[in-house]
Amino acid sequence: MKIKILGAAAGGxxxxxxxxxxLSRDARSGAPGVKRRTQSSxxxxxxxxxxxxxxxxxxxxxxxxxxxxxHPGPEGPLRATPIRAVVVTNADVxxxxxxxxxxxxxxxxxxxxxxxxxxLEANPIFRVLDPALVRRIELPxxxxxxxxGPDGPTGLTVETYAVAGKVALFLExxxxxxxxxxxxxxxxxxxxxNGGGTTAHYVPGCAAVDASLRHRIEGADCxxxxxxxxxxxEMEKAGVGHKTGxxxxxxxxxxxxxxxxxxxxLRVGRRIFVHINNTNPVLDERSPERQHVVEAGxxxxxxxxxxxx
Length: 309
Ligand code: MLT
Ligand code: MN
Fold this sequence. Notes:
Shape: globular
Radius of gyration: 18 Å
Oligomer: single chain
Structural class: alpha/beta
Order of helices and strands: EHEEHEHEHEEEEEEEHEHHEHEE
Largest sheet: 7 strands, mixed
Strand order of the largest sheet: 6-5-4-3-2-1-16
Strand content: 25-35%
Number of strands: 16
Bound molecules: D-malate, manganese (II) ion
Distance between the termini: 5 Å
Protein backbone atom coordinates (compact mmCIF):
# COMPACT_ATOMS: atom_id res chain seq x y z
CA MET A 1 0.00 0.00 0.00
CA LYS A 2 1.19 3.49 -0.85
CA ILE A 3 -0.03 6.62 0.87
CA LYS A 4 0.80 10.13 -0.30
CA ILE A 5 0.12 13.16 1.82
CA LEU A 6 -1.29 15.64 -0.69
CA GLY A 7 -1.87 18.35 1.89
CA ALA A 8 -0.70 18.34 5.52
CA ALA A 9 -2.24 21.63 6.68
CA ALA A 10 -5.59 22.19 8.38
CA GLY A 11 -8.34 24.40 6.97
CA GLY A 12 -6.90 27.69 5.74
CA UNK A 13 -3.61 26.11 4.66
CA UNK A 14 -0.13 27.31 5.49
CA UNK A 15 0.38 30.17 4.98
CA UNK A 16 -3.27 31.13 5.25
CA UNK A 17 -4.18 33.83 2.71
CA UNK A 18 -5.13 36.50 5.27
CA UNK A 19 -2.84 35.51 8.16
CA UNK A 20 -0.08 37.74 9.47
CA UNK A 21 0.88 35.53 12.41
CA UNK A 22 4.65 34.92 12.50
CA LEU A 23 4.41 31.37 11.14
CA SER A 24 2.36 32.33 8.07
CA ARG A 25 4.71 35.28 7.49
CA ASP A 26 7.73 32.96 7.66
CA ALA A 27 6.11 30.44 5.31
CA ARG A 28 5.21 33.22 2.88
CA SER A 29 8.72 34.67 2.85
CA GLY A 30 10.40 31.27 2.50
CA ALA A 31 12.15 31.35 5.89
CA PRO A 32 14.40 28.29 6.38
CA GLY A 33 12.73 25.42 8.23
CA VAL A 34 9.17 26.67 7.70
CA LYS A 35 7.67 24.76 4.77
CA ARG A 36 4.39 25.68 3.12
CA ARG A 37 1.59 23.17 3.24
CA THR A 38 -1.74 22.85 1.45
CA GLN A 39 -5.04 21.76 2.98
CA SER A 40 -5.90 18.35 4.34
CA SER A 41 -5.93 15.41 1.90
CA UNK A 42 -4.29 12.02 1.27
CA UNK A 43 -4.17 9.63 -1.66
CA UNK A 44 -3.79 5.88 -1.14
CA UNK A 45 -3.35 2.94 -3.47
CA UNK A 46 -3.00 -0.81 -3.08
CA UNK A 47 -1.32 -1.29 -6.47
CA UNK A 48 0.17 2.10 -7.42
CA UNK A 49 -2.31 2.40 -10.28
CA UNK A 50 -5.80 2.75 -8.86
CA UNK A 51 -5.94 5.58 -6.32
CA UNK A 52 -8.41 6.60 -3.64
CA UNK A 53 -8.49 10.15 -2.29
CA UNK A 54 -9.15 10.63 1.39
CA UNK A 55 -10.76 14.05 1.66
CA UNK A 56 -10.96 16.56 -1.17
CA UNK A 57 -9.47 19.87 -0.09
CA UNK A 58 -9.97 23.29 -1.65
CA UNK A 59 -6.36 22.92 -2.89
CA UNK A 60 -7.04 19.68 -4.76
CA UNK A 61 -6.31 21.16 -8.21
CA UNK A 62 -2.76 22.16 -7.25
CA UNK A 63 -2.29 18.94 -5.27
CA UNK A 64 -3.16 16.79 -8.28
CA UNK A 65 -0.91 18.85 -10.51
CA UNK A 66 1.98 18.28 -8.06
CA UNK A 67 1.41 14.50 -8.00
CA UNK A 68 2.25 12.76 -11.33
CA UNK A 69 0.72 9.44 -10.13
CA UNK A 70 -2.64 11.20 -10.14
CA HIS A 71 -2.40 12.66 -13.64
CA PRO A 72 -4.56 11.30 -16.49
CA GLY A 73 -1.48 9.57 -17.95
CA PRO A 74 0.62 10.20 -21.05
CA GLU A 75 -1.81 8.54 -23.43
CA GLY A 76 -5.25 7.00 -23.45
CA PRO A 77 -8.73 8.45 -23.54
CA LEU A 78 -9.23 12.21 -23.68
CA ARG A 79 -10.81 12.13 -20.23
CA ALA A 80 -9.07 9.87 -17.69
CA THR A 81 -7.91 9.69 -14.09
CA PRO A 82 -6.29 7.09 -11.84
CA ILE A 83 -8.65 8.28 -9.06
CA ARG A 84 -11.35 5.67 -8.59
CA ALA A 85 -12.98 6.87 -5.40
CA VAL A 86 -13.04 9.61 -2.78
CA VAL A 87 -13.58 8.93 0.93
CA VAL A 88 -14.66 11.89 3.06
CA THR A 89 -14.08 11.78 6.84
CA ASN A 90 -16.12 14.84 7.82
CA ALA A 91 -18.07 17.65 6.14
CA ASP A 92 -15.72 20.52 6.98
CA VAL A 93 -14.92 22.86 4.12
CA UNK A 94 -11.30 21.70 3.97
CA UNK A 95 -12.48 18.15 3.29
CA UNK A 96 -15.35 18.65 0.85
CA UNK A 97 -14.77 21.84 -1.17
CA UNK A 98 -12.42 20.00 -3.55
CA UNK A 99 -15.31 17.79 -4.66
CA UNK A 100 -16.44 20.77 -6.74
CA UNK A 101 -13.12 20.67 -8.61
CA UNK A 102 -13.68 16.96 -9.35
CA UNK A 103 -16.71 17.71 -11.58
CA UNK A 104 -16.26 17.61 -15.41
CA UNK A 105 -18.21 14.44 -15.99
CA UNK A 106 -15.69 12.03 -14.51
CA UNK A 107 -17.01 8.81 -12.98
CA UNK A 108 -15.83 7.93 -9.46
CA UNK A 109 -17.44 6.69 -6.27
CA UNK A 110 -17.94 8.95 -3.28
CA UNK A 111 -17.86 7.28 0.15
CA UNK A 112 -18.85 8.91 3.46
CA UNK A 113 -20.83 8.28 6.63
CA UNK A 114 -24.61 8.73 6.44
CA UNK A 115 -24.27 12.01 8.33
CA UNK A 116 -21.73 13.45 5.91
CA UNK A 117 -23.75 12.30 2.89
CA UNK A 118 -26.77 14.10 4.39
CA UNK A 119 -24.77 17.34 4.54
CA LEU A 120 -23.71 16.97 0.90
CA GLU A 121 -27.26 16.14 -0.19
CA ALA A 122 -28.65 19.19 1.61
CA ASN A 123 -26.36 21.46 -0.40
CA PRO A 124 -27.42 21.65 -4.07
CA ILE A 125 -24.01 22.89 -5.24
CA PHE A 126 -22.75 19.29 -4.97
CA ARG A 127 -25.19 18.31 -7.71
CA VAL A 128 -22.41 19.39 -10.07
CA LEU A 129 -21.26 15.82 -9.43
CA ASP A 130 -23.72 14.12 -11.75
CA PRO A 131 -25.33 11.20 -9.86
CA ALA A 132 -25.20 9.16 -13.06
CA LEU A 133 -21.39 9.30 -12.87
CA VAL A 134 -20.57 9.84 -9.20
CA ARG A 135 -22.20 7.19 -7.00
CA ARG A 136 -22.62 8.17 -3.36
CA ILE A 137 -22.03 5.14 -1.16
CA GLU A 138 -22.54 5.01 2.59
CA LEU A 139 -19.71 3.83 4.82
CA PRO A 140 -21.44 2.04 7.69
CA UNK A 141 -19.82 2.82 11.04
CA UNK A 142 -17.82 0.07 12.66
CA UNK A 143 -17.80 -2.06 9.52
CA UNK A 144 -15.38 -2.80 6.71
CA UNK A 145 -16.10 -1.69 3.17
CA UNK A 146 -14.19 -2.69 0.03
CA UNK A 147 -13.58 0.54 -1.82
CA UNK A 148 -14.66 0.14 -5.42
CA GLY A 149 -14.22 2.34 -8.43
CA PRO A 150 -16.65 2.54 -11.33
CA ASP A 151 -14.69 -0.31 -12.99
CA GLY A 152 -14.38 -2.62 -9.97
CA PRO A 153 -12.39 -3.06 -6.75
CA THR A 154 -9.48 -0.80 -5.91
CA GLY A 155 -7.89 -3.40 -3.61
CA LEU A 156 -8.28 -1.08 -0.62
CA THR A 157 -10.63 -1.76 2.26
CA VAL A 158 -11.58 0.78 4.88
CA GLU A 159 -13.02 0.15 8.29
CA THR A 160 -14.71 3.21 9.72
CA TYR A 161 -15.19 4.23 13.31
CA ALA A 162 -16.77 7.28 14.90
CA VAL A 163 -14.41 9.51 16.86
CA ALA A 164 -15.21 12.43 19.13
CA GLY A 165 -15.79 15.34 16.79
CA LYS A 166 -18.41 17.80 15.82
CA VAL A 167 -20.65 18.99 13.05
CA ALA A 168 -19.05 21.09 10.32
CA LEU A 169 -18.25 24.66 11.37
CA PHE A 170 -20.79 26.04 8.90
CA LEU A 171 -23.55 23.97 10.55
CA GLU A 172 -22.95 25.10 14.13
CA UNK A 173 -26.09 26.78 15.37
CA UNK A 174 -25.31 28.92 18.37
CA UNK A 175 -23.11 29.03 21.41
CA UNK A 176 -23.94 25.81 23.22
CA UNK A 177 -21.16 23.30 22.49
CA UNK A 178 -23.41 20.45 23.67
CA UNK A 179 -25.46 21.02 20.53
CA UNK A 180 -22.70 20.22 18.10
CA UNK A 181 -20.23 17.92 19.84
CA UNK A 182 -20.88 14.49 18.38
CA UNK A 183 -19.78 10.89 18.56
CA UNK A 184 -21.92 9.34 15.89
CA UNK A 185 -20.43 9.85 12.50
CA UNK A 186 -20.01 13.59 11.95
CA UNK A 187 -16.30 12.79 12.24
CA UNK A 188 -14.85 9.39 11.49
CA UNK A 189 -11.49 7.71 11.55
CA UNK A 190 -10.63 5.07 8.97
CA UNK A 191 -8.41 2.01 9.02
CA UNK A 192 -7.03 1.29 5.54
CA UNK A 193 -5.94 -2.20 4.58
CA ASN A 194 -4.82 -3.68 1.29
CA GLY A 195 -5.61 -7.33 1.85
CA GLY A 196 -1.96 -7.99 2.68
CA GLY A 197 -2.20 -7.54 6.43
CA THR A 198 -0.90 -3.97 6.65
CA THR A 199 -3.05 -1.33 8.27
CA ALA A 200 -2.85 2.45 8.30
CA HIS A 201 -5.17 4.62 10.34
CA TYR A 202 -6.20 8.07 9.14
CA VAL A 203 -7.80 10.31 11.76
CA PRO A 204 -7.47 13.95 10.65
CA GLY A 205 -10.07 15.23 13.12
CA CYS A 206 -10.44 13.95 16.68
CA ALA A 207 -11.56 15.83 19.79
CA ALA A 208 -10.38 13.25 22.35
CA VAL A 209 -8.45 9.98 22.52
CA ASP A 210 -10.30 7.32 24.50
CA ALA A 211 -9.56 3.69 25.37
CA SER A 212 -11.47 2.34 22.37
CA LEU A 213 -9.46 4.47 19.94
CA ARG A 214 -6.20 3.38 21.58
CA HIS A 215 -7.31 -0.22 21.29
CA ARG A 216 -8.12 0.16 17.60
CA ILE A 217 -4.81 1.79 16.76
CA GLU A 218 -2.68 -0.70 18.69
CA GLY A 219 -0.48 -2.64 16.24
CA ALA A 220 -1.07 -0.38 13.21
CA ASP A 221 1.74 -0.02 10.68
CA CYS A 222 1.08 3.69 10.36
CA UNK A 223 -1.03 6.33 12.07
CA UNK A 224 -1.86 9.65 10.39
CA UNK A 225 -3.41 11.70 13.17
CA UNK A 226 -4.98 15.08 13.92
CA UNK A 227 -2.13 17.54 14.50
CA UNK A 228 -4.20 20.72 14.39
CA UNK A 229 -2.80 22.45 17.47
CA UNK A 230 0.12 21.87 19.82
CA UNK A 231 -1.39 23.84 22.76
CA UNK A 232 -5.14 23.79 23.26
CA UNK A 233 -5.14 27.60 23.68
CA GLU A 234 -2.56 28.51 21.04
CA MET A 235 -4.98 30.39 18.77
CA GLU A 236 -5.93 32.72 21.59
CA LYS A 237 -2.28 33.16 22.62
CA ALA A 238 -1.37 33.93 19.01
CA GLY A 239 -4.10 36.58 18.99
CA VAL A 240 -5.86 35.10 15.95
CA GLY A 241 -9.05 33.74 17.58
CA HIS A 242 -10.73 32.74 20.81
CA LYS A 243 -11.50 29.08 20.22
CA THR A 244 -9.52 26.31 21.82
CA GLY A 245 -8.46 23.28 19.81
CA UNK A 246 -10.97 21.10 21.66
CA UNK A 247 -13.77 23.58 20.97
CA UNK A 248 -12.96 23.15 17.27
CA UNK A 249 -13.06 19.35 17.62
CA UNK A 250 -9.29 18.83 17.81
CA UNK A 251 -7.35 17.31 20.70
CA UNK A 252 -4.05 19.19 21.19
CA UNK A 253 -0.71 17.41 20.78
CA UNK A 254 0.60 18.47 24.21
CA UNK A 255 -0.64 18.18 27.79
CA UNK A 256 -1.64 15.26 29.99
CA UNK A 257 -4.71 14.47 27.83
CA UNK A 258 -3.05 15.51 24.59
CA UNK A 259 -2.56 13.10 21.71
CA UNK A 260 1.15 12.50 22.33
CA UNK A 261 0.51 11.37 25.91
CA UNK A 262 -2.75 9.56 25.14
CA UNK A 263 -1.23 7.52 22.29
CA UNK A 264 2.09 6.91 24.03
CA UNK A 265 3.10 3.29 24.50
CA LEU A 266 1.05 1.87 21.63
CA ARG A 267 2.82 -0.35 19.11
CA VAL A 268 2.58 1.73 15.93
CA GLY A 269 5.02 1.65 12.98
CA ARG A 270 5.02 5.31 11.98
CA ARG A 271 3.13 8.15 13.66
CA ILE A 272 2.61 11.21 11.54
CA PHE A 273 0.72 14.39 12.38
CA VAL A 274 -1.48 15.77 9.61
CA HIS A 275 -4.15 18.54 9.46
CA ILE A 276 -1.71 21.00 11.07
CA ASN A 277 -3.05 24.48 11.80
CA ASN A 278 -1.09 27.58 10.82
CA THR A 279 -0.68 28.52 14.52
CA ASN A 280 1.01 25.24 15.47
CA PRO A 281 4.65 25.90 16.49
CA VAL A 282 5.77 22.46 15.22
CA LEU A 283 5.56 23.96 11.72
CA ASP A 284 8.86 25.67 12.56
CA GLU A 285 11.50 22.95 12.34
CA ARG A 286 13.74 24.85 14.80
CA SER A 287 11.12 25.20 17.52
CA PRO A 288 11.32 23.41 20.90
CA GLU A 289 7.80 22.06 20.26
CA ARG A 290 9.02 20.42 17.05
CA GLN A 291 11.91 18.87 18.94
CA HIS A 292 9.44 17.62 21.55
CA VAL A 293 7.18 15.83 19.05
CA VAL A 294 10.15 14.28 17.23
CA GLU A 295 11.61 13.02 20.50
CA ALA A 296 8.19 11.53 21.29
CA GLY A 297 8.46 9.45 18.09
CA UNK A 298 6.21 11.51 15.83
CA UNK A 299 6.79 12.87 12.34
CA UNK A 300 5.30 16.16 11.22
CA UNK A 301 3.47 15.65 7.93
CA UNK A 302 4.51 17.54 4.81
CA UNK A 303 2.98 17.83 1.38
CA UNK A 304 4.42 15.14 -0.89
CA UNK A 305 5.43 12.82 1.98
CA UNK A 306 5.04 9.15 1.03
CA UNK A 307 4.38 6.15 3.20
CA UNK A 308 5.02 2.74 1.66
CA UNK A 309 3.69 -0.18 3.68
C1 MLT B 1 -11.69 22.17 11.30
O1 MLT B 1 -10.97 21.20 11.05
O2 MLT B 1 -11.90 22.51 12.48
C2 MLT B 1 -12.37 22.84 10.18
O3 MLT B 1 -11.75 22.54 8.98
C3 MLT B 1 -12.52 24.29 10.40
C4 MLT B 1 -13.04 24.97 9.16
O4 MLT B 1 -14.04 24.53 8.57
O5 MLT B 1 -12.42 25.97 8.75
MN1 MN C 1 -10.36 20.81 9.09
